[in-house]
User: Fold these one by one.
Assistant:
Number 1:
Amino acid sequence: MAQAGAVGTTPVRTFEYSVGGMTVKVPTGCLFTHILRGGGKKITYQNAGVDCAFVGALSSGFCNWRIDFTYANTDNKTYRTSRGRTHDECKIDPMRNNSPQTLPRYGKACAHLYVNGVRRVSQCHHITK
């Protein structure tokens, strides 16, 4: 079986949210990266996280965050979700690994960052023959 990998990065758009009565602003300068390793429908390693630079690195970060991994078929219908734990603390570089797995079908694998219950950024890779 051929081994393959994919790395993709999506900018996190500037947004504001409220935590404990305070308004938190996430400025530009943060990127959401999703990494896959494996071959065919077998994923041997999967990770997603945020890296911030410049002004983004000076912010208070992401509070009440979680990272979910979803898997969809070739018709874009999601058939599996690996929901991450919601972290109450604020973190400038949230990250999550997912366990190795074999997918039942081809399609795409995505990672999603939620902050305060709202999906803020996603990054996907197509899983093909």
Number 2:
Amino acid sequence: MDLEPTDHWRSPRIELFVLRPALVTQDYVDWLNDPLVNRFLESRFRRHDLDGTREFVAQALADPAVLFTGIRTRADGRHVGNIKLGPIDRQHRLGEVGILIGRVAWGQGIASEAIGLLARIAAAELGVRKLSAGCYAANTGSERAFVRAGFAVEGRRPAHVLLDGRPEDTILLGRLLQPN
């Protein structure tokens, strides 16, 4: 999906931008391979390189049901993470959110701010009426970020995934959007 950024894409501290293959840096690849960053991501099961990551970004960019954006700080333009909306279900006007924040930006509220921006884009520019997300129960930082961004815990799937070889619950979150 190829959109041009509008005011919905910016807050005082951060802005979202359409992530393109040429914008994929070694820093981004390093986040994907960092055991602390990828601990709760399904991408942790494989090793990532620059070419493969650029191909992944190209595929997301070509998918009309996905909006894949980078997150950068407005003060210095530094790419600090990514946030994805997709797949988008056009019939039911639903969208799934996934987020990755590099360690350099942890603990600053950037995740909840980026989730809030994505919600504005989803409602105002894409006609999405509800967002959903999921996280491992042990990923309390992610759950807090979504709740701060207006999501509510809608459910829990007991022993749904394996974390370090042990069953782990998945937390299901959702947010109804107001049309702009």
Number 3:
Amino acid sequence: MKNTKEEMLEGCRKMCKNTLMETLEIEFIDITEDSVVAKMPVTPRVHQPDGVLHGGASVALAESVGSAGAFIFLNDKNVAIRGIEISANHVKSVKEGYVFATAKIIHKGRTMQLWQIAITNEENQLVSMVKLTTLTLRI
């Protein structure tokens, strides 16, 4: 039996409790057949010293969304997902508001997945482009 979109989003919200995702206030907001979307507020909590979004916070957002996508799309409760490689290009600064991460699967293997995550601002302008490779572990 396949979970509904709302059930999958609720599952993502539950897995964020007491984790870095909760600390960064990452909220999963949409799941489609080929993507997962989350948003994160840009406040002083995620700023670097000069008052703009820290690249590390962007990377944490991207890995969170891509890893959640791998877990959701594999649809197997007996796996754990690990990010094994991530690279990011930051192209625009953000001082406030929200950023949105949209993870799309490029390669969906049983053991390894490749994700492209676009992080945009509220005006849908590209902030960062991230590539994530995940590994599926049987538990």
Number 4:
Amino acid sequence: MFTVNPANGDPSVIAIESSWGLAVVGGEVTPDRFAVDKVTLELRGVRVGNKSVAYRYDSTWGRVVAVPVAEGDAQRPCLREDQVQELARMGRQLERELGRAQDVEWAMDAEGRFFLVQTRPETVWSNRPRAPLADPGEPVLSRILRNIRIPMRIAD
């Protein structure tokens, strides 16, 4: 989970990726992707990935192994909307408490409880200098009036 959109730096979006099993990294599966409004926690976008493999711990072998995912589950979202919102709420709280955008690793157990595995500052977009949208000394009303477009009609 990123508390800033990792594709374009939009700070109003929390981006969450999920897959069956233990890991999303590695490129072997295309994870589900959720974009969540940071203020309202509403879903702005959902893209369900093809998750044909899940990494699971095999106690017989004492290691993590790749296990095929049932065909019906491979194209089904891993998380419900309320779970996505719960994760986003956790991400938003982490960002507030730690004072900057976060890159968060999380896990969910069989009962649906979330665990934070690791969090670290997001470093790509957070470190870029930001130019002000307008001159800070300019009155707000002047900016609004300058940007209003009134259609002109030429008289015959």
